Amino acid sequence: MKTEEQEKTIENAQVQMRKGILEFAILLLISKGKIYANDILVRLKDANLVVVEGTIYPLLSRLRNSGLVNYTWEESKAGPPRKYYILTSKGGDFLKSCDSQWQILENAVHLFKK
């Protein structure tokens, strides 16, 4: 039986792992084509990367300020215009770098699990 302290330690490790891949996951989603922030949230939740709006919007702003993503406004039939995120060329290069690093990490973990 796990103690409360052990459960908190496990939960903290899981949160840190999710945070570590969240930016990469969001860039992967945006790389597929323009996407609305709420659609990003839904896709992350579908993948069990549960994120709240208070987390994703600052991250999207940081990615934009870094020049990795940009956005366009588009009219919506369901209300006010929507902001759709797109990957910049700099973001594409950064994503390739992240993907290379991911492959290295994935291979290392796979070796350790043997």
List keywords for this structure.
114 residues; alpha+beta; Arc Repressor Mutant, subunit A; three-stranded antiparallel β-sheet; 4 helices; 67% helix; 17% strand; globular
Computed structural class:
alpha+beta
Total strands: 3
The backbone outline, from C-alpha atoms, is globular
Order of helices and strands: HEHHEEH
Instruction: Give the biggest sheet.
Output: 3 strands, antiparallel
Q: DSSP strand (E) fraction? A: 15-25%
Number of domains: 1
- Determine the N-to-C terminus distance: 27 Å
| CATH-defined superfamily | Winged helix-like DNA-binding domain superfamily/Winged helix DNA-binding domain
Please characterize this protein's 3D structure.
With 114 residues, this protein is of the alpha+beta class. It has a single domain, classed as Orthogonal Bundle (Arc Repressor Mutant, subunit A). The chain is built from four helices and three strands. A three-stranded antiparallel sheet has the order 1-3-2. β2 and β3 form a beta hairpin. α1 packs across α4. The longest helix is centred in the first third of the chain and has 28 residues. The chain is globular. The chain starts with a helix and ends with a helix.
